[in-house]
């Protein structure tokens, strides 16, 4: 007896079944043979819907905006820290906290009394203002020169309710560009001796400036024990040689006056025609304007 016959012999009636021999497994067996049923792939739309439905640990639930609430990115921009677009980047990266909790939600609404911490610093809710004035004569930045000379703040009165101050000082005879702001960081920045922004002055002297004196000034000089670096000095085209263009980093007008007095020239007028890249273009004498967002960014980066 061969092995095939011996194996069939002990199987009883099932072995002799008259059913047709089929290699196809039964339905139940077929399911087992295929293994567990594969899950239907989740589409991108379903993923986004699930993500929105899930409550994220560092995000507050969306709520209806109240009249006294403000979007977080606008709050940051109003505080003068950066633009709204840059604020969104800081928010997404987790560098913004509200009441000590990191917030990464773009539409998060800040309520009155909330404490906003931006990249390690607490922001103040007051909007930062930047106002450029083309100052006329007979106005001064000082408050102690008597009633005969009016203060420059009169010229920008009504421009803002913020408590602004002039960047640097100007006496009654100095005209030209004068910046006002309530940004204490910027006020401090432009009064530091190490600040690097250039200012251009047109100086009117009582007599022609000698060429040898112009060269000496161009090389720099020491005033009151401090070295003064002059970036450029030149005669003004089509003007008498008593009209001088001077470029240097100091925003202190007294330094400009002292430079020429050091060489025995009397300064009749000083007009600041450029301040850290800002010019008097389309700004008549006595008028003011708000800086653009790009101008503010440029000032912060000089």
From TrEMBL:
Keywords: Isomerase, RNA-binding. SMART domains: S4 (SM00363). The keyword Glycoprotein does not apply. GO terms for biological process: enzyme-directed rRNA pseudouridine synthesis. Residues 70-132 form the RNA-binding S4 domain. Pfam families: PseudoU_synth_2, S4. One of its GO terms (molecular function) is RNA binding. SUPFAM superfamilies: Alpha-L RNA-binding motif (SSF55174), Pseudouridine synthase (SSF55120). Residues 1-67 are annotated as: Disordered. This is Pseudouridylate synthase.
């Amino acid at each position: 007896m061969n092995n095939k016959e011996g194996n069939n012999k002990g199987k009883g009636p099932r072995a002799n079944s008259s059913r047709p021999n089929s290699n196809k497994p039964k339905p139940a067996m077929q399911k087992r043979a295929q293994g567990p049923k594969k899950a239907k792939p989740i589409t991108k739309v379903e993923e986004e819907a699930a993500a929105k439905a899930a409550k994220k640990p560092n995000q507050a639930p969306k709520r209806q905006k109240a009249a006294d609430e403000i979007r977080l990115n606008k709050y940051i921009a109003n505080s003068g820290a950066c633009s709204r677009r840059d604020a969104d980047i800081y928010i997404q990266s987790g560098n913004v906290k509200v009441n000590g909790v990191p917030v990464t939600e773009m539409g998060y609404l800040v309520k009155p009394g909330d404490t906003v911490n931006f990249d390690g610093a607490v922001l103040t809710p007051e909007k930062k203002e930047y106002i450029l004035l083309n100052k006329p004569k007979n106005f001064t930045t000082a408050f102690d020169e008597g009633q005969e000379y009016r203060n420059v703040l009169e010229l920008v009165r009504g421009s803002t309710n913020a408590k602004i101050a002039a960047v640097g000082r100007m006496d009654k005879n100095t005209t030209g560009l004068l910046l006002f702001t309530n940004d204490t960081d910027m006020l401090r920045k432009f009064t530091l001796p190490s600040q690097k922004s250039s200012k251009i002055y047109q100086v009117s002297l009582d007599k022609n400036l000698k060429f040898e004196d112009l060269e000496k000034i161009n090389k720099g000089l020491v005033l009151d024990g401090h070295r003064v670096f002059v970036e450029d000095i030149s005669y003004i085209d089509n003007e008498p040689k008593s009209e001088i263009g001077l470029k240097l980093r100091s925003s202190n007008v007294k330094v400009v006056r002292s430079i020429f007095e050091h060489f025995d020239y009397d300064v009749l007028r000083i007009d600041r025609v450029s301040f850290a890249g800002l010019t008097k273009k389309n700004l008549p004498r006595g008028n003011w304007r708000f800086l653009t967002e790009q101008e503010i960014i440029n000032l912060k980066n000089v």
